[in-house]
Amino acid sequence: MEKLVVIGGGAAGMSASSRARRLKPQMEIEVFEATKMVSHAPCGIPYFIEGLFDDENLFMTYTPQFFIENRKINVRINTRVTEIDLSSRVVYAEGKDGKMKSEYDYLVISTGSKPKRLPSEGNDRVFYIHHPAEAVSLRQKLWSLNTIAIIGGGILGVEAAEALTQRDKKVLLIHRGEYLLNKSLDQELGKVITDRISRDVELRLGEKVIEIKQGGRLIITDKGKYEVDGTIVAIGVEPNVDLVKDKIQLGTTGAIKVDEYMRTNYREVYSAGDNTESVNIVTGKPYWVPFAPVANKMGYVAGSNIGGEPMKFPGVVNTQITKYKEYYIGRVGLQEEEAKKYGFHPVSATITGKTRARYYPGAKDIHVKVIADEETKRILGAQIVGEEEVLGRIDMMAAAIMKGFTIEDTFFIEMGYLPAISRVWDPVIVAIRKIMED
Amino acid sequence: MEKLVVIGGGAAGMSASSRARRLKPQMEIEVFEATKMVSHAPCGIPYFIEGLFDDENLFMTYTPQFFIENRKINVRINTRVTEIDLSSRVVYAEGKDGKMKSEYDYLVISTGSKPKRLPSEGNDRVFYIHHPAEAVSLRQKLWSLNTIAIIGGGILGVEAAEALTQRDKKVLLIHRGEYLLNKSLDQELGKVITDRISRDVELRLGEKVIEIKQGGRLIITDKGKYEVDGTIVAIGVEPNVDLVKDKIQLGTTGAIKVDEYMRTNYREVYSAGDNTESVNIVTGKPYWVPFAPVANKMGYVAGSNIGGEPMKFPGVVNTQITKYKEYYIGRVGLQEEEAKKYGFHPVSATITGKTRARYYPGAKDIHVKVIADEETKRILGAQIVGEEEVLGRIDMMAAAIMKGFTIEDTFFIEMGYLPAISRVWDPVIVAIRKIMED
Questions:
Q1: pLDDT in tens, B62-83
Q2: Which of A11, A311, A421 is nearest residue B424 as measured by Cβ atoms?
């Protein structure tokens, strides 16, 4: 009987197993998961810290038991894979039941990502927001502190700032960039959200952390030192490829290189999720996007191919959406500087519009930036910050960017108009029109 | 000096004039508008009736004075065009300053739509929700009544029902179809919204009005008779082509036939807005869509071409979005039966999902139907009813349908994921996946 082994029971791993199970009802499927959770959702941790829910089981889409009973997938939680023998096709693991080995016909590597770390002298008050399995103890510790430093002003740093200020913590946010979310947004919209957050949080921008001392109670930067009760490090994540980095080909991004079928350089070994490299559809170049929807779809594609139904993963456009209190923040495609770096000749327009018809009560500002290539007229990127209906506009632009829509193609998208939630000239179309007319 | 004459100062007319002005600063531009309003927004009338705003000037994006002073567009309000002489290129009009004639080099016909009427014996209590210029007197009358019948359960009928029930009126809604919005939604989602509205409104479905009597106080249907205080007729609109129907070529939809440049069968005569036929991008066949964003873009295209910058209008996909209280209702493309009629072999999936991550408080149901063609695998249509983020998902599907995305193309759209407002497997993607797997 054919056997599939999956290393890592997160989004990609469980998506791959489930798809393979559906296509090959007879296949033996075994999943090794190092923690107690499967199909878990790290994106939920900030909201757990905020106190929006208390049941840690809600981090899981399905329980291990569900997979075992309903999908006949042999999930082994609290079991860490220690070694892979790629030539003999054997996985070695270690768990509460001791050591074990498992032979495979197909292997899926879905070990996810791991947080980048900072050097620290002691670490009892240094926190990384990463795995739901640690969320309960993390929250307990954070709630007991008063003044908390966050190092890093990317998406996770901003989400942590929202969570902690909602808990009435005093927050100090130290960020290397000149404005928050600078890896997601260009300066125009980055400033909007930085100004907003600066009302709640003490911001230190353009400042680099040298060292964390006293177990997280003292932070030394290139510009000063800060005493706090504890420190969250949120300076980004990297592919977790420890298990395979010397055995399986990695890409230029440091993640595992795969073909369109999610196959590594070993025919029977697939890789999916945050540990896996992708291709940026706009540039055609290797790219790495550690987000759950991409991980899920990569897993689905790997599972389809293992299940005998060939499917190709088309690549990514780096869609991101987050929120800070009343603001939603979305972006997709390339930033303007990134576009230049890849050899495009970007033109852009940034506008501030309203979210509702002028006569409809409650309209809010919405800020839109659209970036296009002057030569090919293709849309390269879009960024939106606003209080209503940001997500869907970003989704629409993701579709447009994935299929190479031109400026004019996008202008003519027949967007819906409802006075209560939009404008007859949608803010996105107004930005596009500005590029057309400039 | 070149002269452009525009008949009708609504969305299309003012969009065409403004675009032509920008491209040809020296051109003489004259707009004839039969009412006192220009660049007005009929879509706002239900919200005015609901009492969400009181200033009728808010119906106008810009005032006539603004166009005259800032854009040097000679707007003549309260002036009705009575005759066009296409061979001599002369327009005859009549207003408060008496009769006048105006020669043109370019003509734009943007006379909009008019409500379909029902036979009635007397009409002092029969109301049509159509032109913002009549909104103040219409609202005054409606607010003075207690029990009001609405004939027609399309978008306008539903919006009127929302407005009147919010004003605590007793509403009787009589509709020929078996469920509400049956020209917009298939039965699955139509039922959801019909059930919701039936909680507030007395519904008579599958019932045909024979006659309105006693000036709107008595309605005779094929199944009964109803005494009410007044009657709103909302059975649809038709192209307002009275002025030109014997002179300019109409299309099979009854609207003015144009080429991609918005030109009629007279080279120098353009048509734009609700009086104008379009092409359905999915079927390639003539189609008619009387909605403001389409009218605005048609006007923009006509104005660009008149201004010497050639531009083509790509056609329509019939995007619609409306709301009823907590529900947003969107749709785009073809309905399933319509798809069959046009020779497609539709396959579809209908799902009910949630609007937020399972751990995020406040999630609501969202209902999604997606329709695709079994042979070409192209997406043909999408319908969504839900309480959050409906608009943007419809916009995304509009982009997909306009450019012929396949089922798999759409599955791979990298939609944004934020636990507060979406799911890691977006409900749209879940519906698509269901079609793929069935």
A1: 999 999 999 999 999 999 999 9
A2: A11
Residues of A in contact with B52 (CB under 8 A): 359-361
CATH 3.40.50.720 fits B3-35+77-113+240-306, yes or no: no
Q: Assign domain A320-437 one CATH number from 3.40.50.300, 3.30.360.10, 2.60.40.150, 3.30.390.30.
A: 3.30.390.30
Strands (E), B129-281: 147-151, 170-175, 202-205, 209-213, 218-221, 225-227, 230-233, 237-239, 269-271, 278-279
Fold of B327-437: Enolase-like; domain 1 (3.30.390)
Amino acid letter for position B25: P
Helix, strand, or coil (residue A249)? coil
Considering only the beta carbons, identify the residue of A393, A405, A414 that sits closest to B293: A414
Structure tokens at B69: 């002073």
Residues of chain A neighbouring B330 (CB-CB closer than 8 A): 416
What residue of B is the nearest CA neighbor of A325? Answer: B420
In this structure, what are the phi and psi dihedrals at residue A260, rounded to the nearest 5 degrees?
-60, -20
Question: Residues 269-328, chain A: which have Cβ within 8 Å of B?
Answer: 291-294, 296-297, 311, 313-314, 316-323, 328
Identical fold between B3-35+77-113+240-306 and B327-437: no
A210 touches chain B (CB under 8 A): no
Does the structure's ipTM exceed the value 0.90?
yes
d(CA B393, CA B378): 17
Residues of B that are catalytic:
43
* Chain B hits for A320, Cβ within 8 Å: 416
pLDDT, tens digit (0-9, with 9 covering 90-100), for A171-180: 999 999 999 9
Residue B418 to residue A322, Cβ atoms within 8 A: yes
The mean pLDDT value for B159-186 works out to: 98
Reduced to 3 states, what is the DSSP secondary structure of residue B15? Answer: helix
Q: Which two tokens stand for residue B226?
A: 């109803």
A402 three-class SS? helix
Cβ–Cβ of A357/B43 closer than 8 Å? yes
Contact A405 B399 (CB under 8 A): yes
Q: Does domain A3-113+238-306 have CATH number 3.30.430.20?
A: no
The tens digit of pLDDT for each residue in B396-425 reads 999 999 999 999 999 999 999 999 999 999
The hierarchical CATH code for the domain B117-235 is 3.50.50.60
Which residues of chain A lie closer than 8 angstroms to B25, CB-CB?
none
For chain A, the structural domain boundaries read 3-113+238-306, 117-235, 320-437
